[in-house]
């Protein structure tokens, strides 16, 4: 396994090296150059066949986050270090490659609550029952992407892509939850290009994710720890953390598995680009074996649209984007028991399933940017704005009880960047203003029938903290500076500094503080 990973890494690293005979005429900023290329904005791997020459980047960065204006998955005191490299290059008239590698390490203090790495990704989550058990969490991420396109002629091209990422996360205080993440996405498609500014394309894709989790106790073993199974809206049941029968095991990893199957269509016509994607999702939590239980089974549908407008007028560029996304996700809880027939091994007997959860999630984002003097390494001036909104409406039914929740959040940002070139030096200055707010109903509880007792729990402390983070009005600002040295037509190293600040506009009721500050330094090279 290590040999295969090393071989794949070396192959992708080779992609970032300049290719003889296909060198870029003028060195330019990687993010800017790829951002104004309409073919590279499409997710179809065959569309990169329209790219000529090569462009690459490599970067190291360090980030420091402070402040208690955080979601349940964040830390009030954390740092992150990372490295990344990416490249597009044309090997010949027929073959074009795209490669990317990245690594990051993050360590955060006073972290607890959520057990899974991304609780919004799945319909069920697990929570620490005691807020006093917060501690340090360390996480390491790796990702690699490789894509290739092959031109069949002047107008047709085929493409394929493999995108793999992995991560591991460990909490360094009892209960010491440990998580392992794997994500693999495969694409295969084609494109038809009747003219340089026109393209029709389609691809099929498959994505598989798996997060494995387990708990651990290494300190005082006579203390009992509990885990809440959040079945939606911070509403569910509480179980002890011991052995392997309950939701989170102690001696082995238990998987949360998801599979996605989808189709995407693309159309590029002059200044306009359009992309539509639909997919079907199916997954489960547990092990599908006779002696192990499958606790939950879920499925869903997703549809997304990405549109873009890119117009050039002399050295001016106007770019606008629109993204729309909708997902429906449902969850069933299996009803089962463990039985041990005489002289036989323990097995699981299922007696049915209950539909316990439905979630509708939608998001929309629109952006606009104007680049003035965009015929050099960077534009002389850029100004723009982004507005995004997301909403979630969900129902949890643990009969005879139910909980309805909804939450809507809006983010807005305006920014301006100035780039000044003096000989071989480029000085970049940037500023931004940000605003966030939201609304919704944190919980609307009721019953379908009268009952006198229940083992269900509502973790309102976590519920109201997360809801306040998503909806409380907040405003912020940020500044950035970068220095680039253009050594030649092929190489331009740079250093970037930035700091952003966000503050609630009123004193919080449930959050631990009203301020968040993020500082970043990056050193890299475009080539």
Task: Write a compact overview of the structure shown.
By secondary structure, this protein is mainly β. It has helices at residues 2-15, 30-35, 460-471; strands at residues 54-66, 77-90, 95-111, 125-128, 135-151, 156-171, 178-195, 198-214, 226-230, 235-240, 254-269, 272-289, 292-313, 316-339, 347-372, 381-398, 401-422, 425-447, 456-458, 474-485, 492-504, 515-526. A hairpin with an 8-residue loop joins β15 and β16 (381-398).
Task: Describe, in plain words, how this protein is organized in 3D.
There is one protein chain. The protein has 527 residues and is mostly beta strands. It has one domain (2-478, 498-526). 6% of the residues lie in helices and 64% in strands. The strands form 2 sheets. The protein has an 18-stranded antiparallel β-barrel. The longest helix is centred in the N-terminal third of the chain and has 14 residues, at 2-15.
């Amino acid at each position: 396994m290590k040999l295969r990973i090393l071989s794949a890494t070396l192959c992708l690293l080779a992609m970032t090296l300049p290719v003889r005979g296909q060198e870029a005429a003028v060195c330019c900023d990687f993010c800017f150059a790829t951002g104004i290329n309409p073919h590279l904005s499409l997710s179809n791997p065959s569309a990169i066949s329209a790219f000529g020459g090569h462009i690459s980047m490599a970067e190291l960065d360090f980030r420091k986050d402070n402040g208690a204006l955080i979601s349940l998955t964040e830390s009030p005191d954390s740092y992150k270090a990372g490295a990344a490299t990416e490249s597009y290059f044309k090997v010949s008239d027929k073959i074009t490659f795209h490669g990317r590698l990245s690594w990051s390490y993050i360590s955060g203090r006073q972290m607890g609550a959520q057990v899974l790495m991304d609780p919004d990704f799945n319909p069920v989550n697990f929570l620490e029952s005691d807020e006093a058990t917060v501690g340090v969490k360390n996480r390491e991420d790796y990702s690699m992407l490789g894509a290739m396109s092959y031109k069949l002629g002047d107008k047709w091209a085929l493409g394929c892509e493999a995108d793999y990422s992995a991560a591991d996360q460990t909490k360094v205080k009892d209960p010491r939850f440990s998580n392992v993440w794997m994500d693999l996405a495969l694409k295969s498609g084609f494109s038809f290009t009747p003219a340089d500014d026109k393209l029709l394309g389609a691809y099929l894709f498959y994505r598989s994710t798996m997060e494995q989790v387990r708990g651990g106790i290494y300190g005082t073993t006579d203390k009992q720890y509990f885990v809440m199974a959040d079945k939606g809206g911070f509403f569910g049941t509480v179980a002890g953390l011991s052995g392997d029968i309950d939701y989170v095991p102690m001696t082995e990893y238990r998987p949360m598995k998801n599979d996605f199957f989808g189709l995407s269509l693309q159309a590029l016509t002059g200044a306009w680009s359009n992309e539509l994607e639909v997919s079907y999702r199916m997954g489960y939590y547990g092990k599908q074996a006779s002696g192990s239980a499958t606790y939950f089974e879920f499925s869903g549908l997703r549809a997304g649209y990405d549109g873009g407008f890119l117009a050039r007028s002399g050295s001016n560029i106007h770019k606008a984007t629109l993204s729309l996304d909708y997902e429906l996700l449902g969850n069933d809880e299996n009803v089962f028991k463990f039985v041990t027939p005489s002289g036989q091994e323990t097995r699981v007997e299922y007696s049915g399933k209950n539909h316990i959860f439905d979630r509708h999630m939608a998001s929309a984002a629109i952006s606009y940017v104007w680049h003035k003097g965009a015929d050099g390494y960077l534009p002389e001036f850029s100004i723009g704005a982004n507005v995004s909104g997301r909403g979630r409406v969900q129902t949890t039914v643990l009969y005879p009880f139910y909980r309805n929740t909804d939450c809507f959040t809006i983010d807005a940002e305006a920014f301006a960047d100035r780039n000044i070139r003096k000989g071989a030096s480029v000085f970049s200055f940037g500023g931004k203003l940000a605003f966030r707010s939201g609304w919704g109903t944190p919980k609307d509880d009721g019953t379908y029938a009268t009952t006198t007792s229940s083992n269900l729990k509502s973790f309102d402390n976590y519920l109201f903290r997360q809801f306040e983070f998503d909806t409380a009005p907040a405003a912020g600002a940020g500044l950035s500076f970068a220095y680039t040295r253009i050594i030649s037509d092929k190489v331009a190293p740079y250093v970037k500094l930035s700091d952003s600040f966000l503050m609630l506009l009123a004193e919080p009721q449930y959050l631990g503080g009203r301020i968040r500050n993020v500082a970043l330094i990056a050193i890299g090279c475009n080539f």
